[in-house]
Fold Virilizer N-terminal domain-containing protein.
Amino acid sequence: MGLLQWCELRPEGPSGDIAAVLFPQPVRVSSIRIFPTGAQPFSQSPTTVAETEPEAFYLNVYFNAQAVPTPAGCQETQSQDKRQTKNALVPTRIAFAGGQTDFSVDMGSEYATRLVIFQGDFQVISMAIYGERVTEYEEVTDYEPKPLPTPSHILLPSALDVTNSAKPVSLVHQILSLLPSPPPLSLIIRLMFCLKPDSEDWDDPEFPYVYSDLDKRFNEDDVESEVFDLESLVKTVSKPLRDDVSVESLNEFAERMQDFLISNTPDDVYYVAKLLTKSACQQTIFLRTLLQHLNLPEVFNEDVLDEATVLCLLEASSNIEISRYFRDDEPFLLSLEAIQSSLKVEKPTQKALKRLLARIRGWETFEDALTNSNGDFVGAAAFLKDISMEEYALGCWLECMINHEGLVSKLEQTSPAPGSQPPLLFQDRQAEVTHDDFLAFVRAFLGIMPVLAALAWADSIGNNMCTERVLGILVIWQGVKGYREILNHGLLLRQMTRRLQWIKNDADNQQPKKSGILAERLVVGLAKDPIAMLRDDLITAVLSLKPPFSFIEEDEILEMGKLAKVARDGLLSAIDELAYNSVRPFSLRRLRVLRVSIAIITEELNDDDGPWRVLESFWNEHGQGLIPRLVTILSDLSDDLNQHFTLHSIPRMHQALAELLFRTADDFMHLITHFASHYPLVARDLQRVATAVSDLYSCSDATTGTFSRASPAYLAAQSVRETCPGFLSRLSQQDVPSEPDGLVAQAMLRTLFDNASRSVGRDPVQQVLLVYNLVDSIFPQDEDPGSSSWTASVFPTILSELRDFCNLLDPKTQVRFIERLVKLDNEETGLGAWLLAEELQRLSTVFEDLPRQQDPNYQLLLQYQLSASFRLLHLLMTSPTLSSWTISTLSSNADLSQLLDSTLSHILEVNVSSSPLAYLTRELAKHSADFTPDTRQNILLLLLRNAQTDPSVAGALDFVPGTLQSVPSTSIAPVPLRNELGRTLSAYSDHASTMKADTAELVLQMLEWLSSQEDAKLKTLVGIAPEGLDYLCTTLSAILPPPRAEVVSSIRARLSTDEDELLLPPTIELPDPNAFALPLSALENLLERKKLKEPSTPTKGTKTPDILGVVISPPTALLRSPAATGLTKTYANNDFRQLRQMPSTRLNTSRLPSTHVDEFGQRPTASPEMGMGLLLPAMPLDPLGGAYQGISGML
């Protein structure tokens, strides 16, 4: 971005309010900067001085839009764009409120301009226009890679970063220093939040230093100053107390309160509670004096407590000293708990008592969390959220945090961690919170809330400069994660929301003010929060906004008005919005309306009868169920997000839309969870939910490479990513009902397994892993009481889908998946053994298919499957948790042992080689004694063949001698064994010069075993030449110690060689399963559907009978045979039964006898349950013996 134009514009034309800037070539404007009078825009040109008059004005700006030249292949589109944008003026509006101001312009990449027109009531404007020049399109012939731009995170200025400040309230002191003779911060907090001044107090010359007079005497002669009851005492302390108030005056005041409380009527008790409320924001000595003169259990008993009195006590307990006094008075606390649980007490009073007890305990939790690294931070955050919902309680809390030495010292014990950001603790759904996170949140809270009091004070006294400065700080905070949530919560206070409304509407319609512009921005930020839109004060503020607007656009004010009206009308309006069929794709306005509707319904659910009232209202209004409608909208949201996160390139990512889609989907999932725990979801809805959640989870994962980590869209996506597994887990629990007579987990798992092979334009490998994460979240934990029932009720109906999904996983993930299933099954049905059998069966199938395939790419793919299967088996046998189970299952079960032996035979026959196979063979050799002799010999042959591949590998022969000794002589196949031994000895003879002593000892043991065999075939080696065997023996004699070297010559004498050439099939080196690569074109060919040859009518040939004509064509006599007439005979009466008795009628036909007539009406109708077994994978009746009885019985 560069400077395009510096100019001083003066209005011209008949109306005298228009100026224009014409560029010599098309440009793309990015910003317009207006300078006030006297400013020096350029440091290198001090003689250039700006001039702008008047100080503030509105300015209409019109851009002449021109289509940007497009590539030659899009000339038709270019011509259409030029026709559409010819002489088109794109309008916008600027509100200049003084000072140096930048106005950003988003022209996009499709359009440019040469002419900018300015219209307004101005005399002169000094401005700089920034942007870039648009050049003609140049065709790119060579691709030049360039690094993607790295998004930079703009940090808050240190003065505004109260989270990382040791004294968070220092900022508000700096703000108050802008005022002439500012009062103390504590006094401002009391006047703005707690003891609000009367109208006449503002006119008092001594204001704000107007105090309550406790030193006056209660004389009988001065009737006006006498205090006759508790109500008069309350009025006496309605103003702040002096800091130097005497102890005698306080004691006298407390004694008078005690004297007036003799009757203990409900009214008197209310005024006593009111006195405690008034004292909560005053000096600590005053409230302690009052409490010492009260017997709390006697005063506040069940007979006199009502809602108003309890609410006064609630406000009073906002002070830590009063809360401690209540908590330490155990009889009083027990009496409050008893009253709260009493059936005689009205519900509003019970609700108020519940809040009072929660606040008393909340102070204790909050104090502990300040110093305890394992404190209840979530509970402490809930206390802060509750206490800041009301101005008086917030003012008392601020007084305590600023003036109470104990709280100040606790907060200062831990220094702020560098770079801390306040976590989102006010959200209902939050991640794990650390002690440092909580302290960062408290510092941010303590730094922001006093600034609101400063804003209220500056606005009350009419200091525009200070008001604008504070509003500017709030706008900055509203754009920062963490600060935004705390600030918006504080702005929802009744006073603050109304002040924003007043500041905006009090602005001059002819000249904009900075304060009005900033207030508009804050209101817009508040309106984006659906929960905030439910507050009556914000609804009133939005509906009362009056034009002209300096920041809010026309579409935005209409949208905010729509949100406010939906929130104002309540439940019925929210139901109508949910039932409305939206135009797809969703717009920003529609998504915000849906979020507000969800917030309204969620608030209704807080009541005991709320869920039923919501469902009944939806049914009465629209004649349909709410839950299916919620599922439909959730599915639509996931479909819209799928369009943003595919491998296909899209013109431009709309981050605001993506963020709202994620936020709305998150809201819908939580609402569905609430209803699904009480009301069943049908199978169709469950499938749609599982599909939608799978897509949402995949889209949220795709944001990692799309959005900046600090962007709102990324944060919204991560919230969805955390919600999806918990959402599916909650729905799949055993206590959640389903229709019809099935478990939710069955429908959801089946749908997820299907989605694993359906990437929907995304990376298919990543899609499988993401689905695995969701599936793993659905599986119950090992300690869950209902985990054992899964193997009996869930898995038997989805065995084929379970197997197919397992085959899609990579070997490492497969091991984790099988481990989860084995733990869940707990050897009850043999589910893990069945999967192991299916894997071995798949291996055998691939071996059988490999020689028949002619396509080299398909052969490569089959080889990869073999290598991946070997890798899986090796990982299973080396897994810390599954190794013992794998060996035991493979060796103890006859059927599995037979499958393993068949697989090893296939490996030897096809002659494949790979690193995973070598590792697997070594693991099998370690436990060879557990297998049958036939399997043991195949393991031995594989060990020898692996050793032949690379004799230099250390330990290649470690298990050969022991395995040789373990194979019974009756089970030895001498020919293949001697062949492999001969080739192995030949390979080691070729590498004898580098042989080590330990390897030589192993080779000698092999020779000893051969020489000791009675079978002459084993003593005649094949595959090694005599001179090779001699050289090997000579090398062994030289390497081994003398006692062992002497044995070599005798062994050599007993062995002979057969020089016949031994032919083996070529070795197939399998690809590495971790680095498999296949050209994209080859992959496309493999995935392409094969076209079958279209059938064609044979050409008309000669009618001359050939030599086979007599055989192929039956003679005419045969066609006229009585036996053949039954094939075309028309049945009448019972002729068909008689005809069926003739054996000749069934000759030369391929049809079986008809039985449908005899059995019609007798055969039972097949039910859906009867066909369930057909969906299961083919398997023997009892493939695993006793281990399979569980599954067989369930089927």
